[in-house]
Amino acid sequence: MLLFQLGSNAALSLAEIQAVLGKENLVSCGSFVLLDQNIDELKIKKIQDLLGGTVKIASVFATLTNVTQEKIEQTLEKKLSLLTQTKTSLEFAIGELGRDHLPRINTHVIKNNLVGVTGKSIKYYENCRAGLGAAVLLHKKQVVELLACRDQKAINYLAQTVSVQDIDFWSLRDRGKPIAQHKRGLLPPKVARILLNLSLGQEALNLIDQPQNTYCLLDPFCGSGTIPFEAIGLGFHEAIGCDISQEAIDGSLANLEWFKSTFNTTNSPDQKIKFLLSDATQLEKSLKPNSVSHLVTEPFLGKQTPNPKDIPNIIKGLQKLYLGSFKAWKSILKPKAKVVILFPRFNKIKNNSNWDNLVSTLASHGYKLLDRSLSYGKLQAQVTREIWQFELQK
User: Fold this and answer.
1) Can you name the CATH fold of 2-165?
2) Distance CA 225, CA 244 (A)
3) How far is CA 76 from CA 102, 121, 129, in A?
4) How far is the CA of 31 from the CAs of 7, 8, 58, 87, 312, in angstroms?
5) What are the CA-CA distances from residue 142 to residues 112, 136, 164, 261 (Å)?
6) Which residue has the higher pLDDT, 175 or 367?
7) What's the CA gap between 112 and 106, in Å, rounded?
8) Residues of each domain in the chain carrying CATH 3.30.2130.30
9) Which part of the chain is CATH 3.40.50.150?
10) Percentage, residues of the chain above pLDDT 70
């Protein structure tokens, strides 16, 4: 059994795991998810690298029901004692998930008991209850981390961390590129990866091993190119970024050169990535019919801090832009093409169902709504993002 520690947006992280691994054998437990399936070490690493929203993956070694905290601590201590058999010393940490209402695991006592039993050098790391940060585990590979996790039914799962998100990799993708359009708002690469995985579903795991695939990604509001770059990294055969702003296209091209020189961006010599200056409502003039399999985008969302009095007019303008765009995309999308798009949610107004009429109209053009339950954004922000998923029926 595997345990996935979810990122800061647990709902979004969970949705990504469910999309990629399927809902079968998955159990959500708040800040973590259980997968009742045996997976080899190489595939675990592949899954970790693929997911944008999972902090750690751990292997469950004990499931305990109706036990005291002393029993939990004894089981953790026994596991660590076994690990010392092949080591001259041990460095460890213990994280806790779903246990905020309970006393902390007594790491100091466990450490002293281990010293007494093994006679070896034992060191433990003080940390927040959620465990060591990904950066620490990434750079201190000698540290063993155990997790004590409790679900809503008071079942305890004890696990050992076996994989951690490469925070250096994601930080470089996020902050290293030379051109970033801060005024337009920045889509984090991790979120871009999640959106792409929502679009791909269970095909995401296979894509990187299929260099001859014909998947084509389109981002009609590409900004500085984050989504196309992540698509190529995932193994898409082709990624196309379009924007009405020449500044955005110039920035994307500059970022492309940096991206090529910094990362191994291609899984096959045939992979293509390009950026076009184009209005999103007129893309049928630039792209071939039935050529795009996945459309993932964060369109223009209006001002990030709008005056509440202006919001009704902002919504009308955005509805016109979005409808015109969806109409233009219909001819270039393949049948059953997936569309994952962000719509703004204006939190300062009472009625947040601003897009129902638009979605009804889109249904008449063949766009079937698959999901609209996910969102992300900073707490207390005036404008946050809702993630809408469609499939084109034609």
Assistant:
1) VC0802-like (3.30.2130)
2) 13
3) 17, 18, 15
4) 8, 9, 13, 32, 37
5) 20, 10, 13, 31
6) 367
7) 10
8) 2-165
9) 168-392
10) 95
In 10 A of CB 156, how many CB atoms?
A: 20
Residue whose tokens read 């981390």: 145
The architecture in CATH of the region 168-392 reads: 3-Layer(aba) Sandwich (3.40)
Please state whether the predicted TM-score (pTM) of the whole model is above 0.90: yes
* Alpha carbon separation from 155 to 49, 128, 165, 331 (Å, rounded): 29, 22, 26, 52
Q: Which residue is associated with the tokens 């071939």?
A: 288
Helix (H) or strand (E) holding 155: strand 155-164
What is the full DSSP assignment across 62-118? EEEES--HHHHHHHHHHHHHHHGGG-SEEEEEEEEES-TTSPPP-HHHHHHHHHHHH
The string of DSSP codes covering 254-276 is: HHHHHHHHHS---SSTT-EEEEE
Three-state DSSP class for residue 306? coil
Distances (CA, A) of 23 to 17, 19, 36, 137: 8, 7, 11, 29
Q: Work out the angle at residue 317's Cα, subtended by the Cα atoms of residues 315 and 323, and round it to the nearest 5 degrees.
A: 95
pLDDT at 302 over 90: no
The mean per-residue pLDDT over the stretch 329-356 comes to: 87
The mean of the pLDDT values for the chain is 92
Kindly state the tokens that stand for 370. Answer: 């698959």
